[in-house]
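ESCALATION

Customer reports they have been waiting on this structure for their group meeting. Please prioritize. Original submission:
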Amino acid sequence: MSHLLEEAQELLPEAVHLRRRIHAKPELGLDLPITTEAVLEGLKGLDVQIDRGPSTSGLIVSLTGTKPGSQSGRTILLRGDMDALPMPEETGLDFASEFEGRMHACGHDAHTAMLVQAVHLLHRRRDRLAGTVKFMFQPGEEGHHGARYMIEDGLLDRDPKPDAAFALHITPNFRAGAITGKPGPMLASADKWIITIKGKGGHASMPHLAVDPIPVMFETGLALNAMATRRFDAFDPIVLTCAQVSSGTTNNVIPESAQMIGTLRTCSEHAREQARKGIERVAKNVAQAHLCEAKVEIEAGYPVTVNDPEFTAFARGVAVDLLGAEHYVPSPAPIMGAEDFSYVLQRMPGCMLFLGVMPKDHHHDHVAPCHSNHMVLNEDSMAVGIALHAAIAERYLDGEGPARS
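Update from on-call: job pushed to the front of the queue and completed.
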């Protein structure tokens, strides 16, 4: 295991170079031609198979070992996402985004760079691989369902099909080089909800001749907050956030309608279903009490990301052997962010762990988190990510950890 870390350290400069190249030219959504080209250039000279689908610019890169029996051995999928966020960057980095209104603020540039170098590391060690490693370079994680599109394109079903899957996500709020994770629900589901309240417009000086939707909107918000805290088990919680409200055109007109937009996060499909029903019940009944009508729209987002307990125990063991017990810290609770890696984990055992990349001389209370326009990361930690990807793959192909039933 120590040799893996040493070799990953040798590959770190290339990972840093690729990460900065991707960071400077962030792309959004399902089609990432610049980023994909950078990945392909980073893989030049390697004896790998590359598959692509019609729906995205994503890649499945396959590396088969040369150890005896590898052609009929296990297959593991390692995943890294590639897309950025539609937001401004204010880090002051020399390699900051060159594209206005776009930023790699969730570490996908690092995920991609680590995975490219993991291909290199395992390619060097292919005589130790008793099977096949598939590397999933995926666009469209930030709300675009990129993993689902790649699955629907059949890329995960091409022989040899993966028996298990592993992903690593960076977090600036955790000490550099440490790993955290948990079995069971690791990340939440994410749905978007829209409530439109229709009243009756009129003069602002004569509200009794109109039906004002704005106070009804306010009351609906309070009622939803009460529902979230009083109708759900504290050990199966939901997060219900109203993030946008809009109504009206000027100071002396009561508008016809008002709208609220927000997000729903849950850690189980049961709570998710009950919360969706609750949003509709509360909105429609509060509106009716005030002679308004409420239209509720819910856009289904990512499912709950559920780490397979047996695979998570396996991955934890690998991390401890690679880094030492003090560098694996069990996560006490799920993270209420969401991930489309959840679609992959619905099909096969696997897990997502988190890699600490806290910048030097920072404390977790004062570091910019993912999705902040000030987010930066400790690039030295990427060597740990490269080595862990390789270690998980090698050990899994040797027969450890659960296989798809």
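Sent to customer with the following note: The chain is about 35% helix and 25% strand.
Escalation resolved.
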